[in-house]
Structures are given as structure tokens and as C-alpha cells.
Amino acid sequence: MRNFAKKFKTAKYTLLSFTALSVAGYAHAASPDAATGSGTHKKQVASRTTTTNKQVADDRDQKQVSRSEEMLVRGDRIQSATYQSPTNTPLTVTQPTFVMSKHYIENNLPATSNYDTVAAIAPSVMSISPNGPGLSESANLVMRGFSDGQYDVTFDGIPIAQTNDNTHHSTSYYAAHDLGQVEVDAGPGDATTVGFATFGGRIGINSKDPKKKMGAEAYASAGSWNTYNYGAEFDTGEIKGTHGGRLFADVEGTTSGGYVNYAAQRRSNYMIKYIQPLGEHTTLTVSGMYNHIDQHAPPGATRAQIAKYGPEFGLSNDPTNQNYEGYNRDAVQTDLEYIGINSDLGSGWTIEDKAYTFAYFHQPGDSGKDVNGTTANGTVYSATDVPGTRMKMDYRAWGNVLKLKKKVSIVDFQSGVWVDHQSNGRIQYNLDWTLDGRPAPNSAKAITRQMHDQNLSIQPFIQADVHITKALTFSAGFKYASFERDLEATVNQTTKKPMNYSQTYTAPLPSFNLHYMITPKWSSYIQVARGFLAPSLMYFYVGNPADNQVSAERTWNYQIGTSYQSRRLSVGGDFYYIDFSNMIGSRLIGQNTQYYNMGSVRYYGAEVQGTVYLAKGISLFANASYNQARLNSDNSWVPNAPDATAAGGIIYNNRNFYASLIDKWVGSRFGDSSNTQGMTPFNSLDLSLGYTTGRVIGPMNHVKFKLNITNLLNSHSINYFNGYASDGKTALYFTQPGLGAFGSISVPFDIGH
């Protein structure tokens, strides 16, 4: 009966996800404008008489992507600080925001990069990529001291997260070639911002749109550590007879040996996106992405191993060792699909609805029992055989994000709901690698976890944006977060015993924003908002989860900031204070671990970024942050929270040439909660050089050559503490990958007229 109820619940919310689209289509068809086909085509904010109000922000992502769509733009746009800025802060934002445009991504980063590589340039952000740019999953992407799992990641507005702990896999979704922009939102957003962890902010990844002219592009790159990237894209342009429908399809592959020894990666990515106008007031978007990755990922190295074998020490080619590359392998397939509709229904009504599904299939996840050699070989079959584990994990999510807006006089009323259901199955068992992965004779005893868990997120919201004047907007909103976690385990992780348990966490989340356009080029904002993070599944890995005294973790965010935009100068800055309540700790009572809310943490600091356009294609760029993240109980530091960051450099972009020299510096921090693993500051100086030709011959047009040199100073600093080896006391670390050089070429073809 329990399983039947779960299946019914899954079907119910899956149906709800797609029903909303039908409602949107029916509502539009029934509107007077839809029936007559009259009026002019408008985006959501196009009909507004002022560009200073909150509603502008709702459409800024789409507008910024389209503005940076063409590789070659008019000279007056190139010669502007806003266009050249690596971390732009738009005038419309109501919280600290840093936008990395398609222009920045294409010209400054290697072709293998992922969203973590892009976001790393932003103030208060630290990204750890031990195997080279995009050549392994990010070990951690930290924002203001919030680690992965404490903030949201969205793809085209869809919240993505792993079911057990809200973390993310940077190599498993959109490839860099398909990115339109990446946005770091350092705050919980307003009431309309939904997700699993609004707690620490959001990294928003937007895919690019299909081009309006038919064309194709072939591209390839080669570089350090036997890294090769190659692919092809086709754009239909506006398809005849579809009233403006257009599509692009992109196929991409990557192979690399990686900086770390025997940490190879093979990746293939497929992306398709179709945009179809439906009349003059409605746009339908259909998108699909599939990604396959096969990688060998070491867990880090001890200081002794780094000193003896070098900073690139990782795995080996010796099948008698637990760190043999063949025993440490991950094969992962992911997909993400959505259908979205955006419509002006008339009479002040607009609707945005997106139904989606995404999945992550990890089969297998293999490893040696102790990759770092602190545990000797030996299995039930032989004292010299190599022990190891195999893990399989599959999850799929179905969801829908619905947003409605109604303009009444000087007020924009917004309402909607986000619903997301995830189902996840996991199994892990011990085996003998010497005997080709044979489990123990009693296979049931070999299993260390066999679990099925489900999550259900529901977040309804309402908000009113009051345009007090053309320059001043006050927004007040309320969101109610409900998160249900359910676990059925034949073998529960850690306890190794059966477990059936379910718990629902809820939180009221108010938000208040004040946005003021001081001049047409200068804006300011104040934000007071609450964030939410549901407890991890690991709090169910105990004898009796009901004994835990745990509630959802929450933040109160207080932020004030400003942005200025002109042709010569683009600058933004902010001050923030975050009160984090209900920090979860653990205690051992007898043989049982119990979790409880141990207290609070304070985060505070300041951020600033700016770009100055000088003359003749030359721009100067800099950003910096001062960050504090400390427990109120003893003033100790939150793990992996740098005390400061800084970036700066020079950019040259004139006619067909592009060049940049940019350095990113990350300050001191501790890798652990006891503050015993101190990490020294590190930096990476990167050089980019590019040249784009004119028309070459026939349809071949604007061929682009690019050279990226990462870590120009060839630093090998230990920059990340990655926990302990199997003995529980031997510390493991990652180092900076050495100097990397990557050359690339892209060849566009004009096919249409």
C-alpha cells in the first residue's frame, strides 16, 4: 500500500507538471488578442514605459543572451565597458549579481570549461578544478563561504540538484559551447525565486538561443595533457512556413588525459533547442540535452605522496594496487528536457510556464577500498587480492515552474508555484578486483547500502511590485517552502540496517526589495529576504531519525548595493550581512549518532567589481571581496570560506583581435570545521589571445583562432583539503593544475541567404 501511494503521488505531480502548459495554451487561445491576431509582438517587459522597475529583471536574461548572440558586433558596442566587463552588474538587479556573458565565455576560457570555470571569476567565488579546466568535476565551488549544496544551480531557470544533498555535477550538463551566460546571484532572490537551496544564492546557467539565420559551425581544440575537444553545430535560421520557428543542434566531444596522473576523461554532449512563436504574443521553447561522461577521479593525495611523487600524483597503472585507474572509474549519463511557454495574455496578464525532467544515471561508480594506501590489500578470497567497491545510483526528477503576472495600475502582482518530484535508487557493495569484480560469497553481506529515496518540493509564492514612481519600486513577497523526504532502505547507509522513514520540512520565506534608479545610468537597491535549505539525506543514516532534533536551515539576508553603467565605466558594489540559523551538528549517544540544530553562523562582507574602457579597444578590469563566515558560538571559521578574493587584468578587443591577461586570487581559509587544516592563498594568471578573420571563401565566414594559457605562472600550490583517507586520520589534498595551453579554431559557414 505504501508503494502504491508513492506511485500515485508521483503520477499526480507529473500530471500536474504538464497540465499547466495546457492551461496556458487554452488561456491564450481564449483571449481576445489571440483570437484576432492583432497587436504587435512584445516581450514581457517591452510594453513597459520605464526600464527602471522590477519587471525589467524578469526578462533580462533572455535580452542579454540575444544581445551577445553574434560573434562580431558593431564597433560602438565593442568599445564599451558594459560589453567587455567579465563580471557585469545590471542596473535592474535587486540583489548582488555578477553576469558572465557569452562574449566573456567565448573569448577567455578553454573550450572544455564548465559553468564552475566561468563562475570562478566572480567576487567571493572560489572554484577548485584539480584536473584542469572542465577536465573533472569541480571539487567544490564556494560562494561567500557557502559550499556546493548550500546554494541553487539552475539551467534555463530549472533548479537542478542531487537528491541526497542538493550538490551538483559540473561536468554533467551544458557544455561551454552552448552557454548563453552564467549569472552569480549572491542572495536568496525574491519570492518568485524557487529552488532546493535558496539558502546561499544561485548560479544561473542559460543556454544560448538558435540564430535567426541559417548556418553551421565546425570547431576543435587541442592542448595540454592530451586534451582534445571537437564538435559541430547547425542552425536552421527562421524556418519557412513556421512564422519564425528556429532550431539549433550541437554535438560535442572531449577526451583528455588530465593533469592528475591517470585521471582521464571522455565526454560527449548533445544539445538541441527549438523556439517557435505562436501568434504575436506567445513563444514556445522546447529543449533537450544528453551528456555522457567516463572519467577516472582520484580522491586527492597525502602531503607525503605529493612530496614524493609530485603535485600531479593521483592514480596508477598497476593492477595490484587499489589506486589502479581501472578500479577507479565513473560512468555517468545525464539528460535534461523541458517545454516552456511565455505569453502575453492581454489585459495586463502574462504567463510563464516550464515543464521539465532531468535524470542522472551513475553506472558504475567504481573505486578501490582505499586509494591512498592506508589500508592493506585483502579480501575474503585472498589476503593479497585488491578490495574495492561498486556503486550504482539512478535518479530522475519531474517538475514544473509556473509564474503568472497581472499589472493593475502601478502594481505588478506575481504568483505561481514550483513542484518537483525526485526518485532515486542506490546500491553499493564490496568486491574483489583481482577476481574481476567478484562480490563476497554471501552477496547480501557484501552490500553496504541498498536504498530508495524520494523527494517532493512544493513552493507556492505571491509578490507585489509597487512602482511608487518611475524610478522607485518596492517589492514585497511571500513564499512557502515544503520539502518532503522519504527513505526506504533494505540496507541503510552507515547503519547497514533496514530503514523506512519520512519527514516533511517547511518554512515561510518572506522577501522585501527596494530598487531605485538614481539616474538612467545609476541604480541602487536594498534587500531583506529569507533563504531555505532542507536537511540532507545523511540525517536519515542513523538508528532512529526521529531522535534527531533537526529543522530546516534558514538565513536572513540583509544587503545593500549599487550599479553604474555607461560606455566608459561599468561598476557595481554591495555590502551584505547574513544570519544563518539552525546550523546542524552531530553528537554520539551510546552507539547512535544524533543530529541537532547547534546554533548560528554570521556571514558578512563587501564586494565590488568594475571595468573601465580606456580607448582603442583597451579596458581595465578588477573585482574584489572581503568575506567573513564565522560561528557565533566560538568565532571559528566555516570550512572552505576564503577571507577575501580579488581579480584583475587588462582586455584588448579591437576589430579582429582579442587579448586578455586576467589574474584571480583567493585568500586564506580553513579546510575543516575544527580549523586545523589551514590553506594559504593561491592565484591563477590566465592569458587569452584570439583572432577572427573576415570572409574566407564561399560560405566560410569569420574563422576564429584562439589560444588560452591557464595558470601562466605554473603554480602547484596545495589549494584544497578533500577530507581524510579510509583510516579517518590521513589528510588528502588537491593542488593547482600546472600551466595549461589550449589552442582552438571555429569555422562558421553561412548557408542561408
UniProtKB/TrEMBL annotation:
Domain TonB-dependent receptor-like beta-barrel span(s) in chain numbering: 279-712
Keyword check for Transport: yes
Region annotation (Disordered) ranges: 31-75
Residue ranges of domain TonB-dependent receptor plug in the record: 92-193
Chain segments annotated as transmembrane: none
Compositionally biased spans, kind Polar residues: 46-55
A Pfam family: Plug
UniProtKB keywords: Cell outer membrane, Ion transport, Iron, Iron transport, Membrane, Signal, TonB box, Transmembrane, Transmembrane beta strand, Transport
A cellular component annotation (GO) from this entry: cell outer membrane
Source domain of life: Bacteria
Family according to the record: Belongs to the TonB-dependent receptor family.
Protein name: TonB-dependent receptor
Organism: Komagataeibacter oboediens
